[in-house]
Amino acid sequence: MLDHIGFPVSNYVQSLEFYKKVLGTLGYELVMEVDDGASASGAHAGFGKDGRPQFWITEGQPIVGRLHVAFSAVDEAAVDDFYAAAIAASASDNGPPGLRPHYHPNYYGAFVFDPDGHNIEAVCHDAGRL
Fold it and tell me: Which domain of life is it from (predicted)?
């Protein structure tokens, strides 16, 4: 359904380093960075796989309210690694790794608040089946 998503962050450098560390645990990497000289709306960083940016952060005025973004993880260990990296990178806990059977029996996720307070999740939908 979605091709990509992006949102502004209050501190571009801090968020760039945060997402490099956290998304790296899920196999995503910084694919493209556009500096503020090449874009009228400030610096942009695009993360993804196989050279395709699908998640973008942009320097600017952060959105009002809390955004929820869930990233796919290949297995439970990747969810655990995501959570550990996020907490080490100064994220706030919003739900440690574990099964969430109220979503479905094999839903294994972890939730953190990023530097701007957005609810960021890693989820594996095959928990216990691997």
Answer: Bacteria
Q: Which tokens in the block code for residue 35?
A: 């500096």
Residue at 4: amino acid letter: H
SS3 105: coil
Return the beta strands (E) in 1-130 as ranges. Answer: 5-9, 29-34, 44-49, 52-59, 68-72, 92-93, 98-99, 108-113, 119-124
Q: How far apart are CA 111 and CA 9, in angstroms?
A: 19
Question: How many Å separate Cα 118 from the centre of its chain?
Answer: 10
Task: Kindly state whether residue 129 falls inside one of the protein's structural domains.
Answer: no
Q: Report phi then psi at 66, rounded to 5.
A: -110, 130
How many domains does the chain fold into? 1
* CATH number for the domain harbouring residue 111: 3.10.180.10
pLDDT in tens, 23-45: 999 999 999 999 866 556 689 99
Asked whether residue 130 is domain-assigned, the answer is no
